[in-house]
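re the bet — no i am not wrong, look at it urself. input seq straight from the record:
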Amino acid sequence: MGDIFMNKYEALKKYFGYDSFRGSQEMVIDSLLNDYDTIAILRTGGGKSVCFQIPSLLRDGLTIVVTPLISLMYDQVRELKDRGIKAEFINSSMKNKEQREIYKSLSELKILYVAPERLLNKEFIEYVKRIKVSYLIVDEAHTIMWHMDFRESFLSIKDFLSEFGYKIPLGLFSATANKYTIDEIKRVCGINNPNIIKSSFDRPDLFYRVVRNKNKIEYINWYLKGHNECGIIYCNTRKEVMALYEVLKNNYRVYYYHAGLDNKVKEENQNRFIKSKAGVMIATNAFGMGINKPDIRFVINYDMPDSVESLSQMVGRASRDGKGGECVILYNNVDIRTIYFFIQQIDSSSKSLKEISKVKSYKYFCMQSIKKILTSGECIHKSMARYFGESIPCCNNMCSNCQNS
């Protein structure tokens, strides 16, 4: 049973300890409570999870949350249980017996986290059809675009919803989605007229710095000597993560993280970093979704990101406490050539030439967009916001371009 005799304000206070909602949270919650399909674009640190967790608590039935990363499931479910909310996750790392135990307890749960592949599982579908499903939520919904590369299971969302004889409101949450991404989300999910709710994209508490430096190791060493704080250094490849870790480990408190590591190693390194007061995580973009560490003071992109979305996701992990942070992008033309090379290599026997061409065109567009922002000399805050459809003034010396003009 949901807390049907409790309103949204009482639920906010009881389960989350807050007296009032922030920004666009209440609008998103009301949209879901009124059974509208809802696309919510709320900037990193904007409290997206509360927006679907509160409607889940106030409605009878189970909310299914689709998320692409196992680490995010662990963190979210642990926090929900700590708040007294009945939640579980199911993923491929669990034994069949463990999965079936959760299947049998679905009627007792309020929130269940699954990977998109789970929506294709016939046994899972049969179990959830026996109970009431109140919402289907896709967290980090911009990852629906991954269906172009390696997560075709996102295409199953529409078919999964059609298995039920009643309307299940769909909630899609992201911090980064431009018009193209929103249109693709709507197409994949089969929704025509969702409520689209956006908060301001800009993060005025972040300072953006673009650095053209051929010797990246030299710059990193110089930077870390002057910043005894918590930070993240993002690399584009696992090989670079481990190479940089080996260079820095003897002089700084550093950790490493990438998708190829054993789950136990990833969890240990993540926990050590979260508890640290002045540690640096060296990672691929596999690290960060759902990480709740408010005191990250800097994010360094060792390589140029392949899209504005990737950059905004990574830098969004800084300054969640609002006390300020710096985002450094190390830029050189080699990175452009590397990204171009990987786009050229895109191929798949399971895709038609038309589909491959579409993927490549989109990747080229993303590469050119981020290159333009980093090289134009225009205010970085202003140009990034414009990419996401928002018009803002220059940043008042909160980026290296404006500071040097």
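see?? The domain at 8-198 is CATH 3.40.50.300 (Rossmann fold). told u. also The two ends are 59 Å apart (CA to CA). so pay up
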